[in-house]
């Protein structure tokens, strides 16, 4: 099943149980849903290119006690 969705549509479909989104994908869609178009999102990113920082999780613990922690 393939379909094109806006970020807001994908988030709504996921919240209704239509499909599961990976955590990083969900966070990206939340940010993208603030824009009405891809052009707006790209323009916003270009204006702030020096402010964009990666969000990198850390692994805390060892073995079975290890877990992923987001900043």
Question: How would you describe this structure to a colleague?
Answer:
The chain has three helices and two strands, in the order αααββ. It is mainly alpha-helical. It is flat. The chain starts with 6 loop residues before the first helix and ends with a strand.
Low-confidence stretches: none
What is the overall number of helices? 3
What spatial order of strands do you see in the largest sheet? 1-2
Number of strands: 2
Taking all residues together, what is the mean pLDDT?
A: 90
Approximate helicity band: 40-55%
Overall, the morphology is flat
N- to C-terminal distance: 34 Å
Return the structural class: mainly alpha
Order of helices and strands: HHHEE
Q: Per DSSP, what share of the residues sits in E-state strands of 2 or more residues?
A: 5-15%
Q: For the report, how would you describe the main beta sheet? A: 2 strands, antiparallel
Give me the Rg, rounded: 16 Å
Describe the protein's topology.
Layout lengths: L6 H9 L7 H10 L5 H10 L10 E3 L6 E3 L2
Helix pairs in contact: 1-2
For the structure shown, list the relevant keywords:
3 helices; single chain; 71 residues; mainly alpha; two-stranded antiparallel sheet
Task: Give a quick summary of the entry.
By secondary structure, the chain is mainly alpha-helical. It has three helices and two strands; from the N terminus they run αααββ.
């Amino acid at each position: 099943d393939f379909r094109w969705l806006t970020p807001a549509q994908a988030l709504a479909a996921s919240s209704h149980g239509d499909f599961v989104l990976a955590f990083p994908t969900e966070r990206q869609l939340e940010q993208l849903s603030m824009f009405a178009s891809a052009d707006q999102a790209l323009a916003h990113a270009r204006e702030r290119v020096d402010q964009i920082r990666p969000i990198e999780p850390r692994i805390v613990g060892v073995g079975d006690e290890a877990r992923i922690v987001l900043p």
